[in-house]
Amino acid sequence: MRGSDFAELKAFVAVVDRSSFARAADHLGLSRSALSQTIRQLETRLGVRLLHRTTRSVAPTEPGRRLHERIAPMLREMDDAVAQAVGATGTTAGTLRINTLSMAAKKIIAPRLGRFHAAYPDVILDIVVDDGLSDIVAGEFDAGIRVGGRLQKDMVAVRLTPDVKLLAVASPDYIARHGEPRTPADLHRHACINWRFPGSGRIARWAFQKKGKGTETDVEGPMISNHQDIIVPAVLQGLGIFYAYNDDGIAEALERGQLKRVLTDWVQTVPGLYLYYSNRRHLRPALRAFIDCLLDRDIDTRSRRA
Question: pTM, whole model, 2 decimals?
């Protein structure tokens, strides 16, 4: 296979994996026009149309789908073989692609960026904040960070945080106007702020436990959102009750008295955050070092730079 043939096929797989010329071009380090020309050359050489293109989307044709199914796994195997060969040298370098939830990016990754770079200056971190549960294999990521209960199959998982409790919270103003619910059944008489899962679009059910007995309920209220940055201000402004992770925004508001817990006898524990990667991929030195950093294991910067 000529080098140009390989580049064309790699470009085609990148476009199909990302369903976007723009995202594929960014990944490959090409301009969009150069990538379009590469795909046209491939289609001309094969004598078949591989992609349906519109102004808003791109999708494989039937021949394109069959080609992608055959060659995408082979290209990933080649990438893994190269990574393993590089890893055998013990060099901690190269680009490390991480797909992460926003709360993990804020609470776990961001505080450790300086320390990781000081220890491994030859590693380029390509961090994509994504609350939509993208497929890390299809997206060619080295690893992802997700809530434990939502990991993809066939993955090696590394726990980053303990399991956490969900808290039902409301503003003092809301409680003064509407009173407190005493049981989950009382929530049907209250305004509640719903959480929509990014990616699936599904609205979360509120699950509670008390003395080993569980109950789930659907709630209604004035707002639904998929992001804490809009939900937390809504709760603070008295729009309703929210069932939340005890993240920084909620914890600080509780400490300042801007929010108050309700239904304190009813709790639900959910899995903590995990880093995960495919069990079919070689664990690169850069990823091993990144995991150690997130777990606050000792890093000897001098030995890493040697």
Answer: 0.67
